[in-house]
Write the structure tokens for this entry.
Amino acid sequence: MFEKVLIANRGEVALRIHRACREMGIHTVAVHSTADADAMHVRLADEAVCIGPPPATDSYLNIPAILSAAEITNADAIHPGYGFLSENARFADIVRAHDITFIGPTPEHIRLMGDKIAAKEAAIKLGIPVVPGSDGPVGNEAEAKRVATEIGYPVLIKATAGGGGRGMKVAQSEDKLLEALSMARSEAGKAFGNDQVYMEKYLSTPRHIEVQVLGDSQGHVIHLGERECSIQRRHQKVLEESPSPALNATEREHIGGIVTRAMTKLGYLGAGTVEFLYEDGKFYFIEMNTRVQVEHPITEAVTGIDIVREQIRIASGAPLGYEQKDVTFHGHAIECRINAEDPKTFAPSPGRVTDYHPPGGLGVRVDSALYAGYSVPPYYDSLIAKLVVHGPTRNECLMRLRRALEEFVIGGIDTTIDLHRRLVSNVDFVNGAYDVHWLERSMATWR
């Protein structure tokens, strides 16, 4: 097992990794920008190294600085968390080249799944169902028209190197196709330095369902069930739950089996999540995230399995601590992403936290690096806390979640707590009657 792990991230996920390491008897190294000198993970880690000024490009994305920090502290391994360099195959390659263990998948698998076209081709070969669409990047306008006619309108145009909804446009009809194609290419080029796009059939009322997997170096792969991630705004997840209210046990076993067999065939190593659109009883592959997910705590709640701990064990060469038959599901869990944003306009709200009182009680978990007096910097993602609630049934989970949201106090800045309070009391949500477009449709009527 590792003696010392460098955490190449910040905020609540850095604190989450630190806690897992300390419970395993592993020392930690925190890296931080000058803006994060007073961050909680920096205060708690055994060692801390400043790696640059506030902009992420000069700090948390600064590969030479991170490697230097690992070398001067004699770290055995680097955990990238999520975001930043977590899905950067070049970073994983460089870490390996310096004889430091990268706690994550192989660079080859990161590279494969980081390219949307290659990932879709791999999914087909591995027996994973995919959305009908182009065989690769759309080369020109004539080809775009041909593909759209073949799969039928509406169509979705997506950046091959995309993510987070950037470089993604919908064309409802042929007269809108070329405009959408041009906009998607322009947006993709600016966001990712790659303007290639591909096309898929646009599903009108899908749900977003993902399957969590773990694979070890001995070739064993298990799945930890699914998460429902359909509550989204501008393709960004707002709230997640497990299990999905849309699936029954047979469907859960079916898709879990498909994913497990595919990842076993691929030889996947570490934690990963295979994401699907689900409509009319059918699953369609979207992408695979080769890292731990923001929403991993709800899977931990219903399975009792510490995913970050398993990541670390797997990276050290240890076999999985579980077989598929050992994975059982108990109750229901929901996660609310609390952002430092205005709950109505979603304008960022950095600043000093004057009051902080997280909820507690049975089945309530808060992953956050906040404390009273902490100043939320304006340079990074606005996620500041994750409220995770677990209960014996979905209804009991919802009742507990409402109570926890009532207790949650973050003063001095605007947060999305009020949005979640309204959301979890909505009749459609309570009934589980929603899809990926539901939140934006509903919010338009709330104002």
Observations:
- The first helix runs from residue 11 to 23.
- The two ends are 54 Å apart (CA to CA).
- Residues 164 and 236 are 6 Å apart (CA to CA).
- The chain has a mean pLDDT of 96.
